[in-house]
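Kindly inspect this today.
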Amino acid sequence: MQFMPTPVASQLTGLSTDKLREWTSRRALIPADERPKRKGSPAKFSWQTILVLRVAVLLRNEFSLELQAHKAAFAELRKLLRSQSFIALWGKRLALLPGRAWALLDGAEALPPTDALLIALDSHLAVLRDGFALPGASEERQLDLFSLPSVHGKQLPIPQQLPNRRAS
């Protein structure tokens, strides 16, 4: 699994590094996947955790929700996302149901029978795709044949052989 350090996670979530540390460490609202190994080293975040952080930012900024009250719901959302592939999430919406439960809804799926707050995931997934170099949505839901770095000409350096030394 690929992890991003705090500075990159800060960019991907839209949170300042101080606010990200507050949410993941001091308040432990949404903990980092890997805590810093020592003082001054960055925490590390998976794409699932960064997606949960983006959802939390959306709920706070756009809906003025108090996040601390939803701490258990964010833990449940992380658990739900760990059972999903990144590609399978494209075209889906996330529903926050009463009782702080989450549901993933297909684009064509009927709305839940109860009240729910719906979040379209594609714009969030696009940010993660670009930040993590993850596969995008395709009609076939298939992984790309070529890796993103090789398509963009960023190939790994080829190790050079050292000249043979002759014993004298």
Notes: The longest helix spans residues 47-63. The chain is about 35% helix and 10% strand. The helical segments are 6-13, 17-26, 47-63, 71-82, 122-132, 148-151.
